[in-house]
Amino acid sequence: MSRDNLKSMIRLYYRSKPLIEPYYLSKREIAIYSLEDGVYIRHLSFTSMTLLYRYILEEKTPLHLYYSSAYYEDPSADKMELKGWMGSDLIFDIDSDHYPGCSDVLSICLGSGEVYGEKIKKCSDGSKPVIYPLISFNCIRRGWIDAIRLITILREEFGLKNIHLAYSGNRGFHISVYDEEVMKLEREQRREIADYISFKNPDLSRIAPSIGRRKYVYFSREEYGWRKRIVDEIVKRENYEEYRGYIRVKYSIVEEIAEDIGVNIDPVVTMDISRLSRFNRSIHGKSGLIVYPLNYSSTDIDEYSYESFTPFEGEVVVKPYITIAGLKVLDEEIDLNKGLKIKTKPHIGLYLALKGLVEIVDIRDIGVRNV
User: Fold this and answer.
1) Known catalytic residue: 93?
2) Rounded to an integer, what distance in angstroms lies between the CA atom of residue 296 and that of residue 144?
């Protein structure tokens, strides 16, 4: 498969210098998954964005572009123990494919042309299939709502302020905290934060003890922490009664609500003090969409779609490697006929190319959007 046009598209975007510089760039390790080599290049360090752009535009084209969540005395040292850890951002990851109905995939066999509605290990000809996700933007919106819930917890229950939210460019969201008080937290402390946020294995009988034979739980309207989350959900559902200035609710209802007050985050990400994070406004190499920073205080989720996060405008010409009718691509549908060139939107063509289903053969009619 020729990747010349794919490389040209990626470099065309980065020539517009869209990346958002992270705090203290020179103290962070930079990592690139190279289009030319198909390997991760680690332990890079740049003292300025000018030098980083020179590298990705003249030397290695990034399918994925990362910086470390950690700050190091010597970020270019090739062994972790030699880098000199100085602290790390506190980061969270929400993946939308964890929700019911959001993990459907196709297994596409390029050699035989077979398409399976489930994940398989091998095609009938022995080749490895393309595992093709079918995640709708409605699933992304569900992750977005959870991301805002998480930020509310971080602000109201932890008192944190310098919090950044970004669409990951693929299936979920990244939340990064830069407050100084979190920088020196060790792995175990970060795990405790993750457990608290996800409401993992709580002793509900201690958090919300029931009283009397009818097993009622009593709450004030000025609760904090987990109890406040429970009360907020009770009030939202209007599933309570007033009793002498308290909110009174059956314990069975509290049990039901407790299953929903946690936020489904990946604890491994939060615990990792040397985790790699994607550059904001970089291209995600699995989707071709942008890692897009969001203003969580005023964003209207329903105004966005997958197309909101494409870096390109215009049209591309692609040549499919397989015939599939009505293939769902980022909430749109397209008919592919093997070897028959078609024009399509850049984000559709780029997505299909990154999945290995088409070759991009003409990019003369594209430009870079002002994102």
Assistant:
1) yes
2) 9
Q: Which of 89, 95, 97, 146 is catalytic?
A: 95
Q: Could you say which DSSP state residue 97 is in?
A: G
* 97 a catalytic residue: no
Confidence of residue 363 (pLDDT cuts 50, 70, 90): very high
Query: CA 282 to CA 19: how far, in whole Å?
Result: 6
How many angstroms separate the CA atoms of 343 and 364, rounded?
A: 12
Q: Which two tokens stand for residue 314?
A: 């215009």
Domain boundaries, the chain: 89-199+263-273, 201-258
Give how far Cα 265 sits from Cα of 161, 179, 232, 348, Å.
20, 20, 21, 29
| Residue type for position 192 | E
Note if 74 is an active site residue: no
- Which listed residue (266, 272, 331, 362) is catalytic? 266
Please name which of 164, 207, 166 lies closest in space to residue 182, comparing C-alpha atoms.
164
pTM score over 0.70 = yes
CA–CA–CA angle 105, 326, 113 (5° rounding): 65
Q: Are 218 and 247 in contact, with CB atoms under 8 Å apart?
A: yes
List of residues 6+ apart from 351 with CB closer than 8 A = 287, 288, 289, 329, 330
Which pLDDT tens digit goes with each residue over 307-330? 999 999 999 999 999 999 999 999
User: Which CATH number is 89-199+263-273 given?
Assistant: 3.90.920.10
Indicate whether 360 pLDDT > 70. Answer: yes
> If residue 283 lies in a helix (H) or strand (E), which one and from where to where?
none
Query: Phi, psi (5° rounding) for residue 124?
Result: -65, -25
Place of tokens 């979920």: 172
- C-alpha to C-alpha distances, 226 to 48, 142, 153, 208, 341, nearest whole angstrom: 43, 21, 10, 9, 56
Give dist(CA 169, CA 309) in Å, integer: 7
Contacts of 95 (CB under 8 A, 6+ apart): 143, 171, 172, 266
Exposure string over 3-28, b if 16+ CB within 10 A, otherwise e? bebbeebbebbbeeebbeebeebebb
In this prediction, residue 188 has a pLDDT band, given cuts at 50, 70 and 90, of very high
Distance CA 254, CA 241 (A): 13
